Amino acid sequence: DPPAMMLGIESSCDETACAVLDGEGRVRAEIVASQIADHAPFGGVVPEIAARAHLAALAPMVRAALAEAGIAARDLSGIAATVGPGLIGGLIVGAGFAKGMALATGAAFYAINHLEAHALTARLPGIAARAPDFPYLLLLVSGGHTALIAVEAVGRYRRLGTTLDDAAGEVFDKVAKLLGLGYPGGPALEALAAEGDPARFTLPRPLLGRAGCDFSFSGLKTAVAQIVSRLPPGSLPRGMAADIAASFQAAVVEAMADRLSHALAMMPDATCVVVAGGVASNRAIRGRLEATATAGGLTLIAPPLRLCTDNATMVAWAAIERRRAGYSSDDLAAHCRPRWP
Ligand code: KG4
Ligand code: ZN
């Protein structure tokens, strides 16, 4: 039998991505184009610009991925696209493209939930010494999502906690903006925090010690804004900015560790802890999460950064997992869903 090749397409936010995986989940091609430069002048993702950029990027990118994998479109047994949650314009571009290709080639179409794709990434061959068994605990912390999820089986997920206000990455971006750093601010803020004194400012630890494992970040953001607003305009010395950054990051780290330990208590059968999302690349956060998991007797699995942030390998892999678990492929009439909890 020829290997069952799966094409994945991701276009739910500001990354256009496609990937080709073989039936075992080995990555044969993986391409990501970030639109950060297109959106940076606006300080955030502009949906209309994102949709047009996906449209311009996708066809040549898919052609390049097939070439990289050394296959033709007719060799694909499946074509998977993210159909939600995300920005509707980009979703329609990616899903429409995938449906058209499926129609033309006869390949099966898979309508993938972006969060399910993040949730299953840790099971991709080669990530962990052994693919994590169900059920495991997922902490998803990105620019758009903040959630603790019990991953019970392919297609079965239970949300234990989420953010009551801003997403974790969003608050990093907003605080970075207050400190005069560029967009996206997370990586710049982490670098600045390394120079600062985390004990200089006492900031709130949102929901610390409270029942459950929800998150809240807006109080922390407001506290930083108040510190900055008390300074004379235009005068934020670098040392002071670094101390604010370090104090802010320390508060986030402590809040996250607390929420994770509560989630672990809510899920005593968890086999391990998996992190995903751009914020998980923060070394202070990752280190503390690892310590928290270890204290609970579990290992922390953190996929490499390229698979933590938005990518299409996870989309193709989710389709392979669904196919293996016995789910059928999806109808070409499947809708895009901007909200899909
Ligand atoms: O997963 P991701 O690449 O995209 C989505 O949001 O879907 O996450 C991007 C978010 C941004 O808010 C960015 O500021 C944040 O992750 N981020 C970080 C770091 N690197 C990226 N936040 C804190 N520390 C970092 N090192
Ligand atoms: Zn994502």
From TrEMBL:
It is an enzyme of class 2 (transferase). One of its GO terms (molecular function) is iron ion binding. Its EC number is 2.3.1.234. Keywords: Acyltransferase, Cytoplasm, Iron, Metal-binding, Transferase, tRNA processing. It catalyses: L-threonylcarbamoyladenylate + adenosine(37) in tRNA = N(6)-L-threonylcarbamoyladenosine(37) in tRNA + AMP + H(+). Substrate binds at residues 140-144, 173, 186, 190, 282. Its main location: cytoplasm. It holds the Pfam family TsaD. NCBIfam families: gcp_kae1, T6A_TsaD_YgjD. Required for the formation of a threonylcarbamoyl group on adenosine at position 37 (t(6)A37) in tRNAs that read codons beginning with adenine. Is involved in the transfer of the threonylcarbamoyl moiety of threonylcarbamoyl-AMP (TC-AMP) to the N6 group of A37, together with TsaE and TsaB. TsaD likely plays a direct catalytic role in this reaction. Belongs to the KAE1 / TsaD family. This is tRNA N6-adenosine threonylcarbamoyltransferase.
